[in-house]
Amino acid sequence: MTESSPTEVNEARVREYYRLVDADDVLGLVSLFAEDAVYRRPGYEPMRGHTGLTAFYTGERVIESGRHTVATVVARGDQVAVNGVFEGVLKDGRQVRLEFADFFLLNGERRFSRRDTYFFAPLV
Which part of the chain is the SnoaL-like domain (predicted)? Predict the structure, then answer.
């Protein structure tokens, strides 16, 4: 049995994130982030630390439910880039299908220290 490389471990952590967010396991997904993590997402002030992330996922997030389908994961060292599609329902009842790109930076403890999310949606 071979030991996983740090890059493989980082990719697995990112895939676990999507499983937890789709399962609405806020405690589990927040635990993947470092205490001082920063999450940047269009339309929101940067979320900082476990308190900010928990507030986002339990109240501020406009998504009611849905599923992420990851199309591509590119991992190199402590950086992981992802693109895929989110399909779900917003809190106002609208059905959405959005392509997204996420960029994760992991620290030495294999926890997310930064995440940036981008959506492919018309803004103007």
Answer: 14-108
Q: Which CATH number fits domain 6-112: 3.10.450.50, 2.60.120.560, 3.40.1190.20, 3.20.20.370?
A: 3.10.450.50
Helix (H) / strand (E) element for 26: namely: helix 26-30
Query: Do the strands 63-76 and 47-48 form a parallel or antiparallel pair, or are they unpaired?
Result: unpaired
Q: Is the pLDDT of residue 1 over 80?
A: no
12-32 pLDDT tens trace: 999 999 999 999 999 999 999
For the chain, give every domain's residue range: 6-112
Parallel, antiparallel or unpaired: strands 112-120 and 33-40:
parallel
Judge whether 14 and 7 are in contact, CB under 8 Å: no
Query: How many Cβ atoms sit within 10 Å of the Cβ of residue 93?
Result: 7
Residue 12 to residue 14: CA distance in whole angstroms? 5
